[in-house]
Request: fold
Amino acid sequence: MNEDLNRKMVKGLSWSMVETMSNYIVKLVVGIILARLLMPEDFGLLAIMMIFVSLSDILVNSGLGNAYIQKKDATETDANTVFYVNLAISLLLYVLLFVSSPLIGFFFGSKQLPSLIRVMSLGIIISSFNVIQNAIIKRDLNFKKRALLTLVSSLISGLLGISLAYSGFGVWSLVFQQISNRLIMAILLSHCSNWHPSRRFSKESAKEFFAFGSWIVLTNLLCSAFNNFYKFVFGRWCATSDLGYYERANQFQHMVAETFTWMFATVAFPVFSKIQNDKQQLQETTRNFVKCSSLVVYPLLICLLIVARPMTQFLLTEKWLPLVPYLQLLCIVGLLSPLTNFLEQILQGTGNTKMYFSFTFLLSALRIANVLITLRLGISYVIIGDFFCILISIISISVVSRKMLGFLYISVATSIASIIPVVLISATVGIAILHVTGHSPSFIQFVVTALSFLLTYMTITLLLRKKELEKLICLLRKKQNNGK
Reply:
């Protein structure tokens, strides 16, 4: 890997970490306050709305934006083509959701949903204005700008949501929080970006981008459809409060597993795109990404699993305690996130979008079967089944693509095996401390257990992984010197 790309990758990763951590803290604090002010049913309604909004977002945001990043010689005409196509798609999707919202409300048995969906869906149009600006930031590995803008938009929209919730707006406070976040981000990106749309448009560019992006859109659409399939089923055949518990537990897990893995994966995609023809560099870079994400994600998930009950009781109050078993099981499922996220990024970055689609299709089919088999037993059994669905999909695609991606799973297995002793020892210490503090107030149990766990993990890591930490410190110092 050349020196300039290496410097940009490390700098991008550093700012991606800043964005992830700041956004994580803001969302965590805002989510806790809103959960204390609102009811589980309100979050259940939000989860139902997000089923349709997230599917629409994928059609607008995923394929063409990634195709623009992947194209090495993208032009101004290409950027304008992507912008106008995405805008047209967003307008069409809004009209469809506006018209179909009464049917959605009838299906889920809620009179509030039609008006809620019609307002929430405006965010789809707003987000279409961000696609090119976001793509340019990712392509240039300029994650510093994105980190600052994301933090500002999250803070302002979070404060707005809290104010509305405190004033008694209920579920509408969640809707306006989501809309304002997108609107503020769109305004900031437009103000800070050097690119603005012009009248240039090319049918040839549109066809070229669709050839690449269509597989990504289909894959992400399929993936999102069946990720939301659980919410769809829970919202229709379970109580709205149960969906609220599941959604809140899923958000806590997502903040650790998906967010921290995505912090690395966001930088990985443009890097993989730049070195897609060099298998040796691809292998080395993939191994480093997976190992770093695993060292961060795994201990945090284990810690979250251990302190789930006292954390929920202290932060969200006892009305949210039914989410604890869901959260603990989801933490176990999250252990697979480094594998799945980097598999997706390397398949996209190397242009193997059909294989990416095949992986997602297999996972989705298994998830449908899982719901049909386990739903009657309860949500907990659906989550357990989901773990095995993901694991089977990973193993299957690794066998099929072993010639091209064998190194990915070797590096993943190596990184996982190397931290298993650390995680097991730390988990044992955490459980022991939790047992000792079992009769203490929830605040004491939560804080003491979490801090003890993390300090134990850090100490053991310093003892067992000293050489790797020294390499990481040297890499960061090198980045700082290059930045001067």
Remarks:
- The chain has 20 helices and no strands.
- Confidence is low (pLDDT under 50) at residues 475-484.
- Residues 3-37 form the longest helix (35 residues).
- The two ends are 21 Å apart (CA to CA).
